[in-house]
Structure to design on (351 residues):
């Protein structure tokens, strides 16, 4: 029995199939190349939008023209296809932060034109908010410095934060009050601890940078150490010495502009710490802990310890520079907006 033979007009079918597959494969390659270019341009746009929003939000606290600062950043950092601001760009800034939307109206495609797609539009947006700082981690140290904003007959050497305030700090003595108290901080893993009480070697761990404290903000209530000033001083000496050993220098880490604002170049410098400023609790009874209220937080650069002077011949002083400063989102941000009197503000991307 004979087998039927294929019709002669079917012999070119393979050529047709190969041609169709080749077109499909070329389409996929074209889409892959153009998709990679779109992805790269979109990433550049997003980086520009993020940085512009952050710069505008920082200027909202530091200067009079945050929108202008954000627009200047966009102008000075063009992407390959976004050479200058266009009508599609939107910048909106206020005292609470800055939002930016930038776009490329006509992004030309290289190969997708074969499929009838000549170009597309791209955009990116970012929002940065400015809020009162709530530092935590190893930057927050277990001290409370008496705040000049709420003195109640307290020490004359209180914290004012005016233009980088050089200050000498002391726990005082039995005869004379100091402007510094040791406080308990809630530890990571047990947050929130309403009392803030610590025990054992927690104070030394926090002070040396080995402990991680929970974030605290304005209005927090902390408990002072109940030991006499002399005992707190002894506990402080060794722990603070280990922190100071790893420092660089104030001039290398911090610069202060004409308005008194601190520009921090190295957040990893262990001598740059966050410290609560507290309302003056008044004289303490020996051996009795007090509750102190955090009025604001500040940056403190520790420049040295005693013997640099004494309050009454026996109480050592700790020297430092109190600063207003702006930190990254790593420091944590609170719900309250940043105000001119705040010592630490945080700028962070929210969208």
């Amino acid at each position: 029995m004979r087998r039927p033979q294929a019709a002669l007009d079917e012999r070119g079918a393979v050529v047709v199939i190969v041609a169709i597959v080749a077109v499909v494969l070329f389409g996929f390659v074209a889409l892959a190349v153009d998709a990679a270019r779109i992805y790269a341009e979109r990433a550049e746009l997003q980086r520009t939008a993020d940085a512009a929003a952050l710069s505008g939000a920082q200027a909202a606290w530091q200067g009079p023209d945050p929108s202008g600062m954000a627009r200047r950043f966009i102008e000075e950092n063009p992407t390959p296809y976004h050479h200058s601001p266009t009508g599609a760009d939107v910048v909106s800034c206020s005292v609470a932060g800055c939002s930016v939307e930038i776009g490329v109206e006509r992004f030309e495609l290289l190969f997708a034109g074969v499929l009838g797609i000549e170009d597309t539009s791209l955009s990116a947006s970012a929002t940065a908010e400015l809020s009162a700082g709530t530092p935590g981690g190893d930057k927050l140290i277990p001290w409370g410095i008496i705040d000049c904003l709420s003195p109640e007959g307290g020490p004359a050497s209180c914290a004012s934060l005016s233009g980088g305030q050089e200050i000498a700090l002391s726990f005082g003595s039995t005869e004379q009050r100091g402007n510094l108290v040791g406080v308990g901080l809630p530890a990571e893993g047990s947050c929130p601890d309403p009392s803030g009480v610590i025990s054992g070697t927690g104070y030394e761990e926090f002070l040396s940078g080995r402990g991680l404290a929970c974030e605290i903000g304005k209005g927090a209530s902390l408990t002072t150490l109940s030991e006499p000033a002399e005992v707190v001083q002894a506990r402080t000496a060794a722990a603070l010495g280990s922190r100071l050993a790893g420092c660089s220098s104030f001039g290398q880490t911090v610069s202060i502009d004409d308005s008194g604002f601190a520009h921090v170049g190295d957040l990893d410098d262990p001598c740059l710490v966050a410290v609560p400023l507290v309302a003056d609790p008044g004289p303490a009874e020996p051996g009795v802990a007090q509750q102190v209220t955090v009025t604001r937080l500040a940056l403190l650069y520790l420049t040295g310890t005693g013997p640099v002077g004494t309050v009454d011949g026996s109480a050592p002083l700790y020297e430092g520079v109190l600063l207003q400063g702006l930190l990254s989102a790593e420091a944590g941000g609170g719900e309250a907006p940043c105000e001119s009197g705040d010592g630490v503000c945080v700028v962070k991307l929210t969208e």
About this structure: The radius of gyration is 30 Å.
